[in-house]
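Ticket reopened. Same input as before:
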Amino acid sequence: MFYRESGQFKTRYQDDQAVFTIAQDRYFVYAVVAFAYLVIPLWADEYWYEAVLIPFLVFAMATIGLNLLLGYAGQLSLGTGGFMAVGAYSAFKLITAFPDLNVIVAFLIAGLIAALVGILFGIPSLRIKGFYLAVATLAAQFFLTWMFNKIGWFYNNNPSGTLTAPPREMLGYTITSAHATPQTRYMIALILVTVFAVIAKNLIRGRIGRSWMAIRDMDIAAEIIGFRPYRAKLLAFGISSFYCGVAGAMLLFLWLGSVETEAFDINVSFQVLFMVIIGGLGSMLGSFLGAAFITLVPVFLVNAPHLVGLEMPTDTQTNIEVMIFGGLIIFFLIVEPHGLARLWQIAKEKLRRWPFPY
Amino acid sequence: MSQDRNIGSVLLDVDNISLSFGGVQAIQNVSFNVREGEVRAIIGPNGAGKSSMLNCINGFYHPQQGVITYKGVPRKQMRPHVAASQGIARTFQNIALFSGMSTLDNIMTGRNLRMKVNFLFQALYFGPARKEEMEHRLAAEKIIDFLEIEAIRKTTVGQLPYGLQKRVELGRALAAEPDLLLLDEPMAGMNSEEKEDMCRFILDVNDEFGTTIVLIEHDMGVVMDISDRVLVLDYGKGIADGTPDEVRANSQVIEAYLGVGHD
Amino acid sequence: MEILTAIFVSPFLDIASSPVFFAEVVISGILTGVLYSLVALGFVLIFKASGVFNYAQGAMVLFAALTLVGLMEHGAPEWLAIILTIAIMGAIAFVIERFMLRPLVNQELITLFMATIGLNFVLEGFGQMLWGSNVKALDIGIPDNPFEIHIGTESILLGTFDIYAAVVGAVLVISLSVFFHKTTIGRALRAVADDHQAAMSVGIPLRTIWIIVWSVAGLVALVAGIMWGSKSGVQFSLSLIALKALPVLILGGFTSIPGAIIGGLIIGVGEKIAEVYWGPLFGGAIENWFAYMLALVFLLFRPQGLFGEKIIERV
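Engineering reply: fixed in the latest deploy. New output:
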């Protein structure tokens, strides 16, 4: 009853093409954004920032990236970790080599470098499709992590092989490394994610998004329309890797503070893939929902036994967590293979009729 | 019917085309032409090579032999996106819509070649990008209007019934404002009402926009009614070419369809 | 300039200067390759029969090996342990069919693939919870006596174990090939892989078929587990072998049983040669990515693999 569109007329095409055509949706999103920007910084504590909020933002960025490539353009990539690594290491080298360089600018340049690498590894996508392409992207994943591991220059020859984010300031606030407060890092991450989410949405609703979806659905027909599959695919790889690269830089500088190459290994690629699929392929909302879900589940599993008063030996606990995680994924895929975003849509449909059953 | 059409000079000339896949000879030494503004039908029993012929015209298949001349430019090998940019649009026998997108989006994809604004502006979706998007939205809406599919414009095409999907596919082809429209069995699987509608649309397109139409169709009534000239293929060879009346009376054509036994 | 020589000249000189050593490297590669093939076979089976890419195959290998060792540690004689493990793998196949495959029938393949990733986690966690996560030695009595083949003044060192592995691999491949192409069940399996719905509508019992396939894959996993486990101990990293099987499948084609062997051999040999002769140039550990690069290059020229079916797209 409250969630109907009746009475909301659009008289210009512009309004019809807007992101949120239903007023209630718009207000809801404004509310969420306001909450994120205004309410959370007031009462979130360090644990929440470090364990939930900041990683959520980092992975939301990466998930949006992979969703653009997989959900919209239909190209299956398992190289997400590798591209995040490119972003992180590039940002690291840039920031350590140019101490006066603005951190955000460094992130953006790192993203561009990741985009170029992404395009390079996307070249096979013209000839290779589906699972085969996934395996080709694995080549990217393993090669890149091997390269960053082996070549000392990348980690400034630090004997332990780890990258440590040096403290850097912007507008008088320290925003990176352990010296920066979680609150500051959260805000920077939030701003980055907001801006890039808007950009992604704009790309999707225009010509580029359509060309990707055309390629995804039937690339032969797409060619007949005049789309160039090659260009569209490379653009998808490039833009997707840009997002993943920035996410990687965020992971290093805004979240963990120091990483080893393991932080970007194949497990991360799968993690982000889960986020995309469970959130919902081809859905911006889904990217956020999926990232939230996968970020929250381990946190929940770690804390749940304590909450219920159960104590378990750690390795049994780890094993059970792993099993539950796997089980949840299977369960989810059975219940709603189109992901959380679809569940949300269904809920909205029901909400339209509420409180009437039909 | 076809008398009032403004038929001009030759737009498409197919000269001695042969096409084979592995051992199978799909088309053998076929030649014909299509004049500007006319409605040209290609008919023949199943497997005669009709779809393959269309595929050659828009560059999907490359014939081993022969030349296709379009708008005066002879080509040995056409490519699909080049064909598209030259004003050739088509529909498919088995419907090649983008099943994950809405009707509106599908038709908007047809406008693709006319969208020029580069992607940086797209990212910001304002100014030139938005203006261009609205222009094309207007063009797409006109087509939606023309084809009477307003009610389903936001529906995902994968969920539409077959007949409507065919209509949307026609819309997508029209969105490109083509000079040459290739239709591969646009009325297959439709009931007579839907066929009448489809016929009306095709005739309107030819009438209002002067679009040249090449049409593969099995329904003889339709073919005889709306086409100016008919090409008949059988087993990859051209066996008749002329006006509907001429073709109807041709004994080879009758044989091909009814399969009169040879002694 | 030096780098160019180092890459394009020196390794070949090394090879030429000691052909016997080269032969040993090749043979060693062949043997690793056979082991890869065994794992790849499991993939091919399931893919061929249900179109599902079973990411959990590696976890199945690990689980089978863990179960076997676990049972033996509890005092079961080898033959009994093997039979019990086979039965357990069959039971697992039943459970997988009931709770994972059946609800997901007719879903897109990527969904099923994701489900097998979930399954991977479940099996890993479960196996380690049951049997612990230490490295275990697996010994079921396959003799590993070293013997030498003399060629001129040098000799190649081999072990009888390697011969056993090769023979086992060959036997498996041949029997599975025969099974798929000559028996009625084999035909049913191929039908299912092509199109679930069509297979159901001609009366092929999907459920039974799947249980059979996954059980056979479990058996293959057990064999692979035995071989790998005997060679390098049963441990967690066994499940990562699954990832290595992917380039094998690329080369051999996802649906070809002989392809799995040939692909495995090529990858095994290629990897070894690359590591031994080119590895030192790059600081070692080329094996991490060489197989994938090889597969990638291959794909560029032949997107469907050596033996895969050519994908013809019709409009």
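DSSP finds 13 helices and four strands in chain A. The mean pLDDT of chain A is 83. Please confirm and we'll close it.
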